Structures are given as structure tokens and as C-alpha cells.
């Protein structure tokens, strides 16, 4: 099939970006969205033009490296026929009609500077984790795995939150550019486990503060984040974060934690 | 030309393609001790570095997956200065994250007779007795610690209602020793290591360099002392220096272009080290995984693995007659179906090991009984054919027996994934599967300390020639990555670092550093100025076709010789006619891929030479000249029970083969049989 593309081209962070139009023939429905871009790039290279830079790695929906805004929706999940929850790499061209026009843009957020074309810098998310998104245990200092029992329901809830792949779609979808869904996923993952308790209050304070420092916006419970999340991180994670954050205001490190 | 080479004259072949050098041995493990004492002995005899001195030492670690991330976190905790590099935008994206199944550990939580020795035994046997006994025993011994560590980090393993960890069996073993986190075990383990790593970044012990690609190794005064990287955003070429270098850069399956690996997985770091003197062990050992979604067309970029657990309930078949292949499978009556695994291997049926299931699927498709879309193939005689490459994995009987709900509960996410990719509903029509390249067991040669043949260069995880022999059992890759990163390397590297205060100074003015940097710059300049007509991907795909056709699941002498010639021609084509757009001083993905392909083109030839010299079938490597009367794989323990460690001797020169004899003192070597 034939697809019309409007793609954000921007040479580097300082460059002024613009949408450039391309027409691509010979697209098959079995191609993934990224394979369609590969085909475009093969054609562009053959013509001596610079190919479109975009991020991808595993192309199995798990590494979180890929991600572009497709027709206004991060990962394109909602703007096309189906499926709803997807990463860009798991979206297939059969979701688009022959002759359709697709607009492709990078994640839009002040905290994610554009590096080139569709590639953005998401290292702010790593710094949010660095602020406290871990359990402090040195290698070799662990007790036997069966020494601590974990309530299965809480364990499952922890797991649901732990499935976050850190792609940043939540930030891109949020009108405020908030990273609250990402941060709350980590908070919930660790808060549901006995191992996560000692640092729980310190963690939530530090991570929330880092969100602000990175320039992510505040959460106003709009819910766009959860609707585009490819892994279905529930909005209630944010409630968990808020509950823990409020609780932390009444506690001080080393005393009542 | 190729057919005239005598098929039983290995000496003549050797003359043409390789030379034979001295034997090589691991000198770090004390083989005189009982196998269960060797690791504790090595830990005790390894010299230590006192905490005050650790601060003065820098360790460079390339890679942030299970092996690299765990090693960086652990050495950072120990107080060393760690410089950690990855090509992705975040260490959390290393390809370890894609592993689905699980991780083995000899915990015996199920009280079903498991033990360190049994895990050791299963792993050596599963690797077709081509792994090193001492290393595998250690892997089994530290496996239990890994689970403890991950649980303490908050890795959400599956649990039972009593709150304790759940286990399942995997890869055909008879005990339940596999710990798992739904179908995302790799992700959860990697996130655990990543969090430990980010904690050290916060503490200032680890400096993280994302979007940096290692493009050269610096070997100064006989020691690995640094690396050269390219900043993938700015193109800046930089030298980094340290007291030791650790490579944890994963496998090289992308030499086949299509594989289950992430798009960025490459061999460059290992290959650059190989060219600087690190021997490459068993390069031809590739694992082919039988249950992947088949190729759909020529623009496909990668293959997706479907969990092997599907074979527990799915039945594999193809139509008995080629003319039925294009029919709707539901219209093919039972008597016209060939359940070929159940027919040939009645006692194991659909659960035969990965190599057998893969090879039999290939044979059915070669016979013209494959199903699904036809893809263009170029045969060894140069003719083009359209051939279907798929076999059915049918759940209709399971759905009748267990009910659709039960099947959905057990395999639902896999069925959804399949439907998303193929647009077919596997509850209604059988899935189509085909083998694909998955994991590489070969890699840089290391001793018991994980040190390569270059002093100060250590290699962890999939990047070393590994503990897996000729074939890797399910749920053991994650185990090796974390074992190496959390436990083995941090305990062995100290013996080397104890000498670090005596190492001379090294900086960017050192001749070795100057040479390394100049090499990188001229290579990049060369790539950018060829300005030919072929795209990088088109050449890579051609290399992939050659490797898959002649060095894939089944090899023979004539085919491998032909492949070597084809690869040499293709390499020439690459260096004279590739088109790399853009400049170095910017984010340039074409340049990145071209640099990696240049190394794959050299590795591909070495893989074929290694496969050529190993005239035996073993693991996933079926050598047509070596089979039993029944057509099954035939190993030759008397001739090939060794690791092939290849030495680089210069461009255009024959590589030198060093053999490391494999000695089995604690385990009895047996022939496999699944009939």
C-alpha cells in the first residue's frame, strides 16, 4: 500500500525543526511501524538523503527504547483502528488504510530535549531513579529468599507496577509534561514489598523532588498517561504515590519511618 | 571449485584456511581439588585489594545488561571507580531485558531432588560436553545466591499463596528449579541490577556513559588499559583509561541480520578486542530457537521468539502432501497431517530439545511442506525459489481437552502477542512457527577468572565463550549473566588489580592510545568517503542470507567453503561500494550500523572457518558429514572435545587455532538420545 508521511525533521537540539512530507510505496500490512520507517530510510539513503533518525532496539515491546507520537498519540495506540495498548515497535501497518497520511513526531516535553529527528533525551528518567528508586542492599548481603514471605495480592500489585518499561509515553501524553505515572510505578513496585519498607518515606520524597528538579510538570489527574501506557500501569499508582508522599510529610528520616 | 576439495582431508583444508598453534589451558582453577572445592580455593588464593586502595583504581565496564550492570554495581559498592558504558539511552534497555522464561537456581525449594551437582550435571550434558566443567560447577554453586540477592532488591518473582517463591520446570529438566516473573523474567532481573547500578551512580562510584559506543580497545605495555568510544550524539571520539577493562557486551547473533536479538546488538567491542589479541572461543556455536514467529517478507527487521513453554500443549505438524500446504489448516483432516516430531521421536514428541525441533522443522520446509507466506530464497546453486518457512503449532486439541479458558489462562499473553504480529487468531487457526537465531554460545575465550588472553581484559556473560558448551539450556543465560556480574568477576578481578599500583601510567599520549585513536578516526573517515551505491542494511541482509544458508542449523564442508568465498567478496563490496550518509560529528545511525557491519563481516568468516574445522555434529550444530545411520547428530568426543580458541593474525592472514582440551573429571560423558 501507499502511505503519506509527515515527519518531524530536526538536525540537532539547536536546530529549528519542521515537518517534512514523504510518500512511501510498497508498504505491506505485515510490516511493523518501524519496518515501514526502515523502508523509508532505505529509499532516502538510495537517493543520497539523510535517513530519519529514530530510536528502537528490541522491537519486541519490552526495552522501551522506541516511541514516537503518531497522529498525535504516543506510540499511536489510540489514533488508529487497533490495538489500543502498544509500543511503537509492536504497531503494524495493517492498522492504517491504504493512502492514509500519518504524522510522526518525537516525544514532546521540556524535560526531553530533541537530539535529532524523532530521538529525544530521556536521561531525566534515570535521574529520578537515582534519587531513590531502589532498595539499598549490597551484593552478598542478602538473606535467604524464603526468609521473607510476601502477601500474594501485594506481590501481584507490585508486579503490575514493575512492568513499566520507562518509555516515556506517559510524559509525552500529559498536557503538563508530568512523569508522575513513571515515578509512581516505581514507588508502588517497591512500596508493596516488605523489602521496600525501610526506605519508603525517604524514597517517595526524594523521587518526587527529583521530578520537579528535572522540569517535569505536576500531575492534575488528567489520566492521558495511563491511557497511552503500553504496559497498562494503572492510574491508581499515582494515588499510591500521593498517599505515600503525604504520609512522608509527617515523618522524619530515621525517626518514624 | 569447491566440490573438488576432498571431504576427508582436514589437513588440506587447514593449510588453506587456518594454522594450528599451541594448546591453551586455564591455569587459574586448581584441577587437583575436588570440584566442589575449586571455587572456594580460588576465592581464597586470589589476592585482595584493601578498601583504601580501591578508591584509586578505575575499572572500565562496557555493557549494562545482567552481567555488565551487575558487575558495575558490585564493583562500585566495593569502592572502585567504575566507568560504565552502553550504546542505549539508558542502562535499563540492555537486551537482557527481553528474556522471557526464567532463571535456574539449585535451591531445592520443591524438595524434588535438586542439588548443585544436578544443576551442574544438567548444564554440562545440555551443552553436549563442550563447556568447561569447573566453570559450570561454579555457576551452579552461586545460583542460589543470585535468587537471594534479587529478592532482596525487590525483584517480584512469582509467589504462591503462602507467600513463598514459586518454581516451574523448564527446558526439559526433571526438577522444578526455575524462578520466574510472569513472561518478563529478564526485565525484572535487569531492572533489579539497573536499580543497584543507579544507586551507585547516585553515590558517585559509578559514572554512567549512555549513548557511547566502544570502538577500540587500548592495549598498552601488554595490558588492557582503556577503550576508545564514539559519543553517538556528538560523534566525539574519546579515550578512557583504567586499571582493567571488562566487556559485558552480549552476543553476536545479529551477524545473521534476522535474529531474536535487539537491533543494536553487535560484536564490535569483542571483535576489536579479538583483533588486539583476545582469542575468540567457539565462534560457530549459535543457538537456534525452534519457536519463533516466521519471516513474513523481505523488509522484516527482526524475529520474535514465542516462549518454548508452548510446546508443552501445542502439537507440531505440517500437511502430509505438499499440495495441501496452501489450504486452510482447519480443512485438512487428521489423517492428512504429519505430526512429525511425535512420529519420529515418540517418547519425547513435541518436547524434543531445541536443536532437534529446529532441524526437523527445516527439513519439512525443505521438502516443500512448509506453510504460511512464501519468501524468496537463493539456493546454494544460485537459483531463486519462493518457499514457505513455517510449521503449525496447533492448540486445537489442547483447547478441546482443557477448555479455551484454561488455555487462555496459561498462554494468553503469548496468544495475544502472536495475534498482534500476525493478525491471525491462534485460538481458531494454528500458530505458525519457525526456528530463528537466538543466542550465541561462542565468545571471547576466558580463563576461570573470566580473564581473556589479554591481561587486564575480562569478559562476562554472553560475550565470553561461556559456560554453555555447544547448546544452551533454557533459563541458564540469565543465571550466567548475574553469576558473572554479581559474584564471579568481583571475586576474581581483585587478584589482577592487586598488581595495579605497579602498572605504569597511561594517557592519551601513550603510543598505544594514539594508535587506537588514529585507527578509529581513519576507519570512520574511510566509511564516510566510500560513497558507493549499496546501503548498509542491504549488505547486512546479504551477509545474513549467507550465514543462515551455510552456517546455520545444518552445515557441510562444500557449503562452508563457498560461504567463506562469498563473505570475502561481500566484504570487498562493502569496503568499496557502501553508502554512508552524513558526517561523524552528529547523531548518525547509518555510520553506527556501518561500523558494526564491518566487524560482522570479519566475524562471519571466522564463524565459517570454525564450523568448517569442527567436523562433528554437536549441540545445535548439525554437520551433515557427521550423522548416525538414523540421521541423528553424531558427536566425536575422541577428536573434538576441546574449545576452539582462535587467534587473530592480521587482516588477510589465516587465523591460528589453539585448542583447549576439555577434561571431565567429575562427570561421565554420554551420547544424547531422544528416540
From TrEMBL, chain A:
Annotated 2Fe-2S ferredoxin-type domain residues: 1-108
Keyword field: 2Fe-2S, 3Fe-4S, 4Fe-4S, Iron, Iron-sulfur, Metal-binding, Oxidoreductase, Tricarboxylic acid cycle
InterPro entries: 2Fe-2S_ferredoxin-like_sf (IPR036010), 2Fe-2S_ferredoxin-type (IPR001041), 2Fe2S_fd_BS (IPR006058), 4Fe4S_Fe-S-bd (IPR017896), 4Fe4S_Fe_S_CS (IPR017900), Beta-grasp_dom_sf (IPR012675), Helical_ferredxn (IPR009051), SDH/FRD_Iron-Sulfur (IPR050573)
4Fe-4S ferredoxin-type domain: residues covered: 155-184
Cofactor(s) recorded in Swiss-Prot or TrEMBL: [3Fe-4S] cluster; [2Fe-2S] cluster; [4Fe-4S] cluster
Name of protein: Fumarate reductase iron-sulfur subunit
Gene3D superfamilies in the record: 3.10.20.30, Alpha-helical ferredoxin
PANTHER family named among the record's database cross-references: SUCCINATE DEHYDROGENASE, SUCCINATE DEHYDROGENASE IRON-SULFUR PROTEIN
Originating species: Cutibacterium equinum
Catalysed reactions listed for this entry: a menaquinone + succinate = a menaquinol + fumarate
Pfam families: Fer2_3 (PF13085), Fer4_8 (PF13183)
EC number(s) on file: 1.3.5.1
Cofactor: how and how many bound: Binds 1 [3Fe-4S] cluster. Binds 1 [2Fe-2S] cluster.
Taxonomic path: Bacteria, Bacillati, Actinomycetota, Actinomycetes, Propionibacteriales
Keyword Isomerase: no
SUPFAM superfamilies associated with the record: 2Fe-2S ferredoxin-like, alpha-helical ferredoxin
The family this protein is said to belong to: Belongs to the succinate dehydrogenase/fumarate reductase iron-sulfur protein family.
Broad EC category: oxidoreductase
NCBIfam families on file: dhsB, PRK07570.1
From TrEMBL, chain B:
Keyword Flavoprotein applies: yes
Pfam families in the cross-refs: FAD_binding_2, Succ_DH_flav_C
Domain Fumarate reductase/succinate dehydrogenase flavoprotein-like C-terminal, chain residue ranges per copy: 540-674
Record's keyword annotation contains Flavoprotein: yes
Domain FAD-dependent oxidoreductase 2 FAD-binding: 59-478
InterPro entries linked to this entry: FAD-dep_OxRdtase_2_FAD-bd, FAD/NAD-bd_sf, Fum_R/Succ_DH_flav-like_C_sf, Fum_Rdtase/Succ_DH_flav-like_C, SdhA/FrdA/AprA, Succ_DH/Fum_Rdt_flav_su, Succ_DH/fumarate_Rdtase_cat_sf
Keywords annotated in UniProt: Flavoprotein, Oxidoreductase
SUPFAM superfamilies for this protein: FAD/NAD(P)-binding domain (SSF51905), Succinate dehydrogenase/fumarate reductase flavoprotein C-terminal domain (SSF46977), Succinate dehydrogenase/fumarate reductase flavoprotein, catalytic domain (SSF56425)
Classification via PANTHER family: SUCCINATE DEHYDROGENASE 2 FLAVOPROTEIN SUBUNIT, SUCCINATE DEHYDROGENASE FLAVOPROTEIN SUBUNIT
Full protein name: Fumarate reductase/succinate dehydrogenase flavoprotein subunit
Amino acid at each position: 500500500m501507499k502511505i503519506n508521511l509527515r515527519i518531524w525533521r530536526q538536525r540537532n537540539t539547536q536546530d529549528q525543526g519542521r515537518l517534512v512530507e514523504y510518500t512511501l510505496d510498497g508498504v505491506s500490512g505485515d510490516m511493523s511501524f518501524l519496518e515501514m520507517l526502515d523502508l523509508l530510510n532505505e529509499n532516502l539513503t538510495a537517493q543520497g538523503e539523510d535517513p530519519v533518525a529514530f530510536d528502537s532496539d528490541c522491537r519486541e515491546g519490552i526495552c522501551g527504547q522506541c516511541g514516537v507520537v503518531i497522529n498525535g498519540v504516543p506510540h499511536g495506540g489510540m489514533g488508529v483502528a487497533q490495538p489500543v495498548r502498544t509500543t511503537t515497535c509492536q504497531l503494524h501497518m495493517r492498522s492504517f488504510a491504504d493512502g492514509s497520511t500519518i504524522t510522526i513526531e518525537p516525544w514532546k516535553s521540556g524535560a526531553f530535549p530533541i537530539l535529532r529527528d524523532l530521538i529525544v533525551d530521556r536521561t531525566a528518567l534515570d535521574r529520578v531513579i537515582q534519587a531513590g528508586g531502589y532498595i539499598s542492599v549490597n551484593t552478598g548481603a542478602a538473606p535467604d529468599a524464603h526468609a521473607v514471605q510476601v502477601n500474594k495480592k501485594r506481590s501481584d500489585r507490585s508486579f503490575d507496577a514493575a512492568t513499566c518499561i520507562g518509555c516515556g509515553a506517559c510524559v509525552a501524553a500529559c498536557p503538563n509534561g508530568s512523569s508522575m505515572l513513571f515515578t509512581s510505578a516505581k514507588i508502588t513496585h517497591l512500596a508493596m514489598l516488605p523489602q521496600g519498607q525501610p526506605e519508603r518515606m525517604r524514597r517517595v520524597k526524594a523521587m518526587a523532588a527529583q521530578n520537579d528538579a528535572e522540569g517535569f510538570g505536576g500531575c492534575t489527574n488528567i489520566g492521558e498517561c495511563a491511557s497511552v501506557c503500553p504496559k497498562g500501569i494503572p492510574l491508581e499508582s499515582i494515588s499510591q504515590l500521593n498517599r505515600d508522599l503525604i504520609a512522608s510529610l509527617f515523618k522524619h528520616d530515621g525517626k518514624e519511618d | 571449485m569447491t566440490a573438488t576439495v576432498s571431504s576427508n582431508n582436514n589437513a588440506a583444508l587447514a593449510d588453506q584456511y587456518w594454522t594450528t598453534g599451541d594448546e591453551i589451558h586455564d591455569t587459574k582453577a586448581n584441577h587437583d581439588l575436588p570440584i566442589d572445592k575449586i571455587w572456594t580455593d580460588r576465592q581464597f588464593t586470589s589476592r585482595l585489594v584493601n578498601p583504601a586502595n580501591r578508591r584509586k583504581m578505575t575499572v572500565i565496564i562496557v555493557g549494562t545488561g545482567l552481567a555488565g550492570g551487575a558487575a558495575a554495581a558490585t564493583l562500585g559498592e566495593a569502592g572502585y571507580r567504575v566507568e560504565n558504558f552502553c550504546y542505549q539511552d539508558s542502562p535499563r534497555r540492555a537486551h537482557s531485558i527481553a528474556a522471557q522464561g526464567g532463571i535456574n537456581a539449585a535451591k531445592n525449594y520443591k524438595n524434588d531432588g535438586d542439588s548443585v551437582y544436578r544443576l551442574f550435571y544438567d548444564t554440562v550434558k545440555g551443552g553436549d560436553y563442550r563447556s568447561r566443567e569447573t566453570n559450570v560447577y561454579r555457576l551452579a554453586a552461586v545460583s542460589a545466591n543470585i535468587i537471594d540477592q534479587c529478592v532482596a532488591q525487590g525483584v517480584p518473582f512469582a509467589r504462591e499463596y503462602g507467600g513463598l517463591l514459586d518454581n516451574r520446570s523448564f527446558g526439559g529438566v526433571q526438577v522444578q528449579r526455575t524462578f520466574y516473573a510472569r513472561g518478563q523474567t529478564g526485565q525484572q532481573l535487569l531492572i533489579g541490577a539497573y536499580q543497584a547500578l543507579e544507586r551507585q551512580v547516585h553515590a558517585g562510584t559509578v559514572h554512567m556513559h549512555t549513548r557511547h559506543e566502544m570502538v577500540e580497545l587500548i592495549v598498552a605495555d601488554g595490558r588492557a588499559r582503556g577503550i576508545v568510544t564514539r559519543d553517538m550524539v556528538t560523534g566525539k571520539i574519546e579515550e578512557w583509561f583504567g586499571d582493567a577493562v571488562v566487556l559485558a557486551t552480549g552476543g553476536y547473533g545479529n551477524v545473521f541480520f534476522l535474529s531474536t536479538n535487539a537491533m543494536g546488538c553487535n560484536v564490535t567491542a569483542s571483535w576489536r578486542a579479538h583483533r588486539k589479541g583476545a582469542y575468540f572461543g567457539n565462534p560457530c556455536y549459535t543457538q537456534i530457537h525452534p519457536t519463533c514467529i516466521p519471516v513474513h517478507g523481505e523488509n522484516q527487521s527482526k524475529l520474535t521468539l514465542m516462549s518454548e513453554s508452548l510446546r508443552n500443549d501445542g502439537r507440531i505438524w505440517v500437511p502430509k502432501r505438499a499440495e495441501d500446504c496452501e489450504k486452510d489448516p482447519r480443512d485438512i483432516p487428521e489423517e492428512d497431517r504429519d505430526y512429525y516430531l511425535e512420529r519420529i521421536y515418540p517418547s519425547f514428541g513435541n518436547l524434543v530439545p531445541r536443536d532437534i525441533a529446529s532441524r526437523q522443522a527445516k527439513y519439512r520446509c525443505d521438502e516443500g511442506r512448509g506453510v504460511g507466506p512464501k519468501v524468496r530464497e537463493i539456493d546454494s546453486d544460485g537459483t531463486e525459489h519462493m518457499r514457505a518457512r513455517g510449521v503449525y503449532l496447533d492448540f486445537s486439541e489442547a483447547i478441546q481437552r482443557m477448555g479455551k479458558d484454561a488455555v487462555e489462562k496459561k498462554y494468553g499473553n503469548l496468544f495475544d502477542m502472536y495475534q498482534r504480529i500476525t493478525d491471525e487468531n491462534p485460538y481458531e487457526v494454528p500458530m505458525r512457527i519457525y526456528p530463528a537465531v537466538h543466542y550465541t554460545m561462542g565468545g571471547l575465550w576466558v580463563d576461570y577468572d573470566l580473564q581473556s588472553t589479554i591481561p587486564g581484559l575480562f569478559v562476562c556473560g554472553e560475550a565470553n565463550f561461556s559456560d554453555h558448551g555447544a547448546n544452551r539450556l533454557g533459563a541458564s543465560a540469565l543465571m550466567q549473566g548475574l553469576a558473572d556480574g554479581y559474584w564471579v568477576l568481583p571475586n576474581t578481578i581483585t587478584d589482577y588489580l592487586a598488581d595495579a599500583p605497579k602498572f605504569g601510567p597511561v594517557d592519551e599520549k601513550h603510543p598505544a592510545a594514539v594508535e587506537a585513536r588514529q585507527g578509529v578516526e581513519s576507519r570512520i573517515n574511510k566509511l564516510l568517503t566510500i560513497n558507493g551505491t549499496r546501503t548498509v542494511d542491504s549488505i547486512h541482509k546479504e551477509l545474513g542470507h549467507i550465514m543462515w544458508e551455510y552456517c546455520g542449523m545444518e552445515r557441510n564442508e562444500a557449503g562452508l567453503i563457498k560461504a567463506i568465498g562469498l563473505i570475502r567478496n561481500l566484504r570487498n563490496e562493502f569496503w568499496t561500494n557502501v553508502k554512508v550518509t552524513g558526517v561523524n560529528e552528529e547523531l548518525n545511525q547509518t555510520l553506527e550500523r556501518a561500523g558494526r557491519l564491518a566487524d560482522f563481516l570479519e566475524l562471519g568468516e571466522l564463524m565459517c572457518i570454525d564450523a568448517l574445522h569442527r567436523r562433528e555434529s554437536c549441540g545445535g550444530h548439525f554437520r551433515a558429514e557427521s550423522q548416525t545411520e538414523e540421521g541423528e547428530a553424531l558427536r566425536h568426543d575422541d577428536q573434538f572435545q576441546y574449545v576452539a580458541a582462535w587467534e587473530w593474525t592480521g587482516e588477510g592472514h589465516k587465523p591460528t587455532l589453539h585448542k583447549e582440551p576439555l577434561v571431565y573429571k567429575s562427570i561421565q560423558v554420554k551420547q544424547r538420545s531422544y528416540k
